[in-house]
């Protein structure tokens, strides 16, 4: 479990995170949502250790990140997989070398064993036979799938995804969502997804944390989100007429 | 940010760079890639420029010494001195600062703005050590070779220019090359090249690594990297000359 307690983060005079407290459980797809500027990315970067938080604690299965030694932090990072918004694949490496990179850096496995594992995860994300391609030759959806393969190749305990659907067509976005949810169950990971995509929120949000101005405004499941009367979340999630109508119909049907 | 802050940040960067590589095998792979990108791919342009600059220096010297009282072997002597003392180490390094410096700053800067550096950090990789140390080793070991090739080709270019234009005799030029040959000048040139190679690898890396924004800022960082690398090379050239020859 990842437990966040009273997390604060400021940049100069700008107080971005104002006392966030929440938990993320194993085997669940957790979503962080909120308007632009609400502190989602800063929160994710604090969880990842890319930003040092000013106050509060982040505990990874009992290990408080700020209390860890450099070696313990390095060990913790090998247990983390990350899918970046722009995929962040290394341009100078082929798909195979991109996915193999964490294995080369952190294990002493023979090459054949590493290659076997790389092919296994590439099969899992439906990219069999793409080993020799370079990132520039891949579509947006394929890049995301390679990024997911690279993130899970070390069997991580924690998977973080920053806007995994940005720039993808609705069908590919759904494929990526389902893939994330499936591998979360398969690998029994704690998955945290930072998303703007309401389709993803409704589809895979087993736990949703809604941030507003650096505060946790609301948290619950995707089903609870449909029936909540929290004004901020209703205005954010159901901002389009289509979503409003869908919600009305859903609420009517549930009453019947 | 003021200049002192930049200098402090640059040295803090170097502290992270000079750590033991996390995986020797990965380090060697990156090192060979860098030798190819930063060294071998610069060989052609350096050879081309060195040959023609050597020719130009010899022709200009020959045209300047038209007095019958000045011996013709001075053309070879002057060309050799120019090539060994300045062209081989300094001029070559300024060319490399433009070619390689902009490549280093833009490639690392692009990695920064496309979150590839964050991806390394999240994995637990020391990104500065992984990205910059192989560049330093590659340039420090390869650029002295480039400098020596430039010196040789420059002197050869001078001889070829004389032979082709009939401005001086081959035998005079060769006498000039042999005259007062001091091996310390080669040492002096190599010391300068090693120092400049370090500057060429690290200053552009600093500008690329700490870039913020998008592609426009990467372009700006690349330009700044070339300017500051050239300024540093020219300044260090003065002090090194004063220390080693003064």
Features:
heterodimer; A: alpha/beta; 2 domains; six-stranded mixed β-sheet; four-stranded antiparallel β-sheet; 24% strand; B: 246 residues; 8 helices; elongated
Your description of this structure?
The complex is a heterodimer of chains A (256) and B (246). Chain A is α/β, with parallel strands linked by helices. Chain A has two domains: 2-79 and 157-255, Rossmann fold (3-Layer(aba) Sandwich), CATH 3.40.50.300; 92-155, no CATH class. Chain A is built from ten helices and ten strands. Chain A has helices at residues 40-48, 70-78, 95-106, 111-124, 140-152, 170-186, 198-204, 222-227, 231-237, 241-255, and strands spanning 2-11, 14-24, 29-34, 55-60, 63-64, 80-83, 158-162, 190-194, 207-212, 215-220. Chain A has a six-stranded mixed sheet with strand order 6-7-8-3-9-10. A four-stranded antiparallel sheet of chain A has the order 2-1-4-5, covered by helices on one side. In chain A, α3 (95-106) runs parallel beside α5 (140-152). The radius of gyration of chain A is 19 Å and the shape is globular. With 246 residues, chain B is mainly α. Chain B has one domain (23-245). In chain B, 86% of the residues lie in helices and 0% in strands. Chain B has helices at residues 3-17, 24-64, 73-113, 116-123, 127-165, 170-178, 183-209, 215-245. In chain B, α3 (73-113) packs across α6, α3 runs parallel beside α7 (183-209) and α5 (127-165) crosses α7. The longest helix of chain B is centred in the N-terminal third of the chain and has 41 residues, at 24-64. Chain B is elongated, with a radius of gyration of 21 Å. The mean pLDDT of chain B is 93. The chains are: A alpha/beta (256), B mainly alpha (246). At the A-B interface, α2 and α3 of A face α2 and α4 of B.
